[in-house]
Design goal:
CATH architecture of the largest domain: 3-Layer(bba) Sandwich
Largest sheet: 5 strands, parallel
Number of domains: 3
Strand order of the largest sheet: 5-2-1-9-21
Length: about 450
């Protein structure tokens, strides 16, 4: 019996690889193994579901059983892969051992978890899957009416006035892309939102300062409260009842010691590094993702920030490929044997967005079907889901020297040292000019290639 091609992971990377491969190989044996249900949903929908009044179950577009039937493959749901053996071409799972002909690692990434003090630090939530969102949604919609009253021993965070929403205050750790999308969705759905970040504005890693300021104002107008230059220091259970606000003292003084709690209200007391305290219902961490590398590392594959893959998405071990949030896309080609692997492959970056996954899956499908194909990533503008201020970003390649120029209101271009446009940011109505700006960048990139072969 022919060993199957096995895909580990049922996210967008895994299922898109299945779809693309089936266009080329309708009958080759396929096995998809996933730790969750395997149901297909669009992960980007997790950060805009609330304003659309969509419950977790409504985000599923196709059940795993239907996907398996449509694409002629076997799905092992709720199954964890424990180890891979690249030499024997086997993997060991909670459902037993399997031989593979080719193996695809679409294992994704996990939210970065910062060490926090406090007896409720384990209550901090992250959302990186439908299961995560389901837990968050349940807690959000069932939150008690604790509100945002100040707690003992600190200066209260500035919550929205009580008339904006009588309860459910969500504090978001991180003002990056995901944090801002959730802030917009929560505030737009009527919840109280505070965002804490050590930077001096939202999405500073992606946006020029004036665009960041625009986003700060737009979300502030929606009710989001910003707390920049600070981090979350501790999360404790809030004691039942709230003292008089006039009795609050700076968190740096003796009064800041946690009050012994024998009974708590279900609300949380959050202490920031700047001494402010807040009583909130939920703390949501959105400070970034880290590639899932444990399985690959244990199998001896070369890993850095992600699983290092060459231009054909092959890992350092023949017959094993990776894509999606777990992959670090490098240049060059691995050698034909593991011993010859490392030298030709260099550099690389992680690309945790939808468009790179689609491009990678198409190239990988061709390679798996017998035609080694290098992935070519086109210009990939990202539409950020902040309807309070629509934004499109086409970031310059990491390390590109240059600076942002404000061409006209709502439009910024990243110019390199030769005054070539290498990226752009559009806000508001300017986002309708996305295609025009993409053509400009591509045209100048092509002209630069011709003049500097």
């Amino acid at each position: 019996m022919t060993a199957p091609t096995i895909i580990i992971g049922a996210g967008l990377a895994g299922w898109t690889t299945v779809r693309e491969l089936r266009k080329l190989e309708p009958t080759t044996p396929l096995l998809l193994i996933t730790a969750d249900s395997g149901d297909f949903y669009a992960k980007p929908s997790l950060s805009n579901a609330l304003q659309q009044k969509r419950a977790p179950a409504q985000l599923v577009t196709t059940l795993a059983a239907k996907m398996a039937e449509t694409h002629n493959l076997r799905v092992l749901a709720h199954t964890r892969v424990l180890a891979i053996d690249p030499v024997a071409r086997t993997l060991r799972s909670t459902q037993g051992e399997f031989h593979y002909r080719q193996l695809v690692l679409a294992t994704g990434a996990q939210p970065i978890r910062l060490p926090l003090a406090g007896d409720a630090a384990d209550q901090v939530q992250s959302i990186n899957s439908l299961d995560d969102f389901s837990v968050f949604y349940q807690r959000l919609t069932n939150a008690d009416q604790a509100g945002t009253a100040p707690t003992a021993g600190g200066v209260p965070l500035d919550p929205q006035p009580s008339h904006e929403h009588p309860a459910r205050h969500v504090l978001i750790m991180g003002a990056g892309l995901i944090g801002c999308e959730f802030a917009n969705d929560l505030a737009g759905a009527g919840y109280r939102v505070s965002v804490v970040d050590p930077s001096n504005g939202p999405m500073t890693a992606l946006l020029p300062a004036p665009a960041s300021a625009q986003l700060q104002q737009a979300l502030g107008d929606l009710g989001v409260r910003w707390h920049f230059g600070a981090t979350v220091k501790a999360v404790n259970w809030a004691p039942t009842g709230s003292p008089d606000p006039a009795g609050a003292a700076p968190a740096s003084g003796p009064a800041s010691r946690p009050t012994p709690v024998t009974q708590h209200s279900g609300a949380l007391q959050v202490e920031l590094s700047n001494g402010q305290l807040a009583r909130v219902d939920i703390v949501l961490s959105a400070i970034g993702l880290r590639s899932n590398l444990e399985l690959a590392q244990a199998g001896g594959l070369v890993c850095e920030r992600g699983i290092v893959v060459d231009a054909t998405l092959r890992t350092s071990s023949p017959g094993i490929y990776a894509l999606g949030d777990s992959a670090q896309y490098a240049s060059g080609l691995w050698g034909a044997t593991p011993e010859a692997a490392a030298a030709p492959v260099a550099g690389g970056r992680t690309l945790p967005y939808v468009m790179p996954i689609m491009s990678a899956a198409r190239a990988l499908a061709a390679t798996l079907a017998g035609t080694p194909t290098a992935v070519v990533f086109p210009l990939m503008p990202v539409a950020i889901k902040t309807p309070a201020l629509p934004i499109v970003v086409a970031a310059p390649a990491p390390g590109t020297p240059g600076q942002w120029h404000n061409a006209e209101p709502g439009q910024w271009q990243f110019m390199d040292e030769q005054q070539q446009v290498r990226g752009f940011v559009l806000t508001g109505k300017q986002t309708a000019r996305r295609a025009e700006h993409a053509r400009l960048v591509l045209g100048q990139r092509a002209a630069s290639t011709i003049s500097h072969p």
